[in-house]
Specification:
The complex is a heterodimer.
Chain A (H helix, E strand, L loop, with lengths): L4 E6 L5 E3 L19 H10 L8 E5 L4 E6 L2 E6 L2 E6 L5 E3 L5 E4 L4 E7 L4 E6 L22 H4 L7 E3 L9 E3 L9 E6 L8 H7 L4 E7 L3 E5 L14 E2 L4 E3 L7 E3 L6 E2 L3 E5 L1 H8 L6 E6 L2 H20 L2 E3 L1
Parallel strand pairs in A: 13-21
Antiparallel strand pairs in A: 1-4, 1-11, 2-3, 3-10, 4-9, 5-8, 5-10, 6-7, 6-9, 12-22, 13-20, 14-15, 14-21, 15-18, 16-19, 17-18, 17-20
Chain B lengths: L3 E5 L3 E5 L6 H19 L6 E6 L3 E6 L6 H9 L14 E6 L7 H8 L3 H9 L3 E6 L6 E4 L14 E4 L3 E5 L2 E4 L4 E3 L2 E5 L21 E6 L2 H9 L1
Parallel strand pairs in B: 5-13
Antiparallel strand pairs in B: 1-2, 2-4, 3-4, 6-7, 6-13, 7-10, 8-11, 9-10, 9-12
Chain lengths: 319, 228
């Protein structure tokens, strides 16, 4: 135990502790949750030398301003994020993502904004000193479970740090960016409920991401999809990335904190390979859907995991 | 036995037991659910992350990095339903309810032309079966109510329903675990906590396949139980 901690000088819009999520509980109504962008989460932990199961801080749009009150620590910020480190002597260092920084007592980290993206991550060497619930620290705000009593961080919170700094060398890696607006999907269980024309529209017309978008779901605006069978189904279990279409014909993509069961027909499901790309899109952006087959989706995801492993393997010491 | 197996996205599988909603079909769903849960928790089928039963379907989600759908489908096809046991993990519960906290009994009575006490007796005399738990943590969907109590959802859902409220719609009964919006007809309230995060080893006492009877309590007893 030590007494190292940050004080929250500004919490940001939606700053929560997250890890890979909480599993084996969906039958009790507990959604897995976890980090929205798995790649950025994994890279953040790897940069500071943590295992992939360590909890990190996830922020959306505007991030937190944290002051290190006691101790010394090493951090990494991942995603596409604008941030600064304000040294104790007021010197300001403009931050770069995908590398580490050492913070001394009295330093502040000011995470100003995610740039052309929604979610960013801050990992800490050795991790945050936080309490898991059912083997995961992931915060589910609606159910109030996870680290920090299941709440977003707020002004004046104290964030405890597990370890004193061990490795004083900084590290960095290169992460390619991806700005594509084509999201690959697989056919949903009720694809045949939609008219032939709507099936065609879904894969050819653009859909705009609306403001009604959060960790639970993303509402789209575009040409209405016509259901010719039934606009309600018997409630059934939901999977991450399901694209459901209620009676108004406007699709809603169910994201990481999805409700565990739902009763709307699902036209398609986001492929695992494009999930991170999708959730980093911001309201107002336009996307297109492209249909792929299961074996392609499996192969593409395998390649993506290999690419993430390469990025992690290429973490190098810097001065 | 399920009628159809199909993939949902690239990391989900649905076992579809047909279109009917009844306890017999749901029992088969829950048998398979218990079987898979047991296999996964024993360390077999590594990579399966969740198994979610609903009225007539079981949905399995998995980590595509660790396991492929073809392996799970092969496993599902090899399951011998005649050897699965429903009572394996199912529990019986008595849940206290105070009908003084109803919000809709008067309207229900008018709509169905059944008096208040009869409605309560129908509810108290029902042996409920938990079809599924979900949407939010600890939220049970139970059945079957006498067909004389058949009601639709409220035309305008309420913005706020107190935690513990017991509602009915069609042949189903639910309990709201948290204060939340909702459209069910509220006939009473239970002091029981459906999802207790302080009890980490067993936060949710109701599970799919459990059976329930309600027991009427007074307001005083309600308050005593709630403060326990």
């Amino acid at each position: 135990m030590n007494n190292n901690f940050f004080e929250v000088l500004r919490p940001g819009i939606n700053t929560t502790f997250q890890d890979k999520g909480r599993f084996h509980m969906q039958h009790l109504g507990v959604t897995p949750g976890g980090c929205m962008d798995l790649a950025s989460f994994l890279i953040a932990n790897a940069l500071v030398g943590n295992t992939p199961s360590e909890g990190v801080l996830e922020f959306a749009y505007q991030g937190p301003l944290l002051k290190l009150i006691e101790g010394r620590t090493k951090i990494a910020i991942t995603g596409t994020v604008i941030f600064q480190i304000i040294k104790k002597n007021h010197q300001v260092v403009n931050g770069e993502c995908n590398r580490t920084y050492i913070l001394e007592k009295g330093d502040q980290i000011d995470i100003l904004a995610t740039k052309h993206s929604a979610y960013g991550y801050m990992a800490l060497e050795g991790g945050f000193d936080i309490k898991p619930f059912c083997k995961s620290v992931s915060v589910l705000v609606k159910a109030q479970i996870g680290a920090n009593e299941g709440k977003k961080i707020k002004l004046n919170d104290r964030i405890n740090i597990k370890l004193d700094i061990k490795n004083k060398k900084n590290t960095a890696t290169k992460v390619p960016s991806n700005n594509k607006n084509i999201i690959r999907v697989l056919e949903g269980p009720q694809f045949s409920y939609f008219s032939k024309e709507s099936q065609k529209d879904f894969f050819s017309k653009e859909y705009k991401i609306s403001n009604l978008t959060d960790r639970m779901g993303m509402r789209l605006e575009g040409i209405a999809l016509k259901n010719i069978v039934n606009t309600n189904i018997r409630s059934e279990g939901i999977t991450k990335g399901a694209i459901q279409v209620p009676a108004d014909g406007q699709p809603i993509i169910l994201l990481t904190d999805y409700p565990t069961i739902g009763g709307y027909p699902k036209i398609a499901n986001i492929s695992s390979v494009d999930y991170n790309l999708l959730i980093q899109k911001t309201p107002g952006e336009k996307i297109f859907f492209q249909l792929i087959k299961l074996h392609e989706a499996e192969q593409l995801y395998k390649e993506q995991l290999n690419n993430i492993s390469e990025i992690i393997k290429n973490i190098k010491e810097i001065n | 036995m399920f009628k159809k197996l199909r993939n949902i996205g690239d990391c989900g599988i649905v076992c579809d037991f047909g279109d009917e909603v009844n306890q017999e079909i749901n029992s088969s769903v829950i048998k398979l659910f218990h079987h898979i849960k047991k296999e996964v928790l024993q360390g077999n089928l590594n990579g399966i992350l969740n198994y979610t039963p609903s009225y007539n379907k079981l949905i399995i989600s998995f980590d595509l990095e660790k396991i492929k759908s073809s392996k799970i489908i092969d496993f599902l096809k090899s399951v011998d339903f005649s050897k699965l046991n429903l009572t394996y993990n199912s529990k019986k519960w008595t849940i206290p309810i105070c009908y003084d906290f109803e919000l809709d009994l008067e309207d229900i009575s008018k709509t169905l032309k059944i008096n208040r006490d009869e409605i309560i007796n129908f509810h108290l005399n029902t042996n409920f079966f938990v079809y599924m738990v979900g949407f939010i943590p600890g939220h049970p969907f139970m059945g079957d109510l006498n067909s004389k109590l058949f009601l639709n959802r409220l035309k305008t859902p309420r913005v706020k329903i107190p935690a513990g409220s017991v509602g009915i719609v069609e042949k189903f009964c639910n309990i709201y675990p948290y204060e939340s919006p909702g459209g069910w007809n509220i006939i009473g309230r239970t002091p029981f906590k459906l999802f207790d995060k302080k009890n980490e080893s067993n936060p949710c006492f109701l599970a799919p396949g459990d059976t329930i009877k309600f027991k009427s309590i007074t307001k005083d007893e309600f308050e005593k139980l709630q403060n326990e």
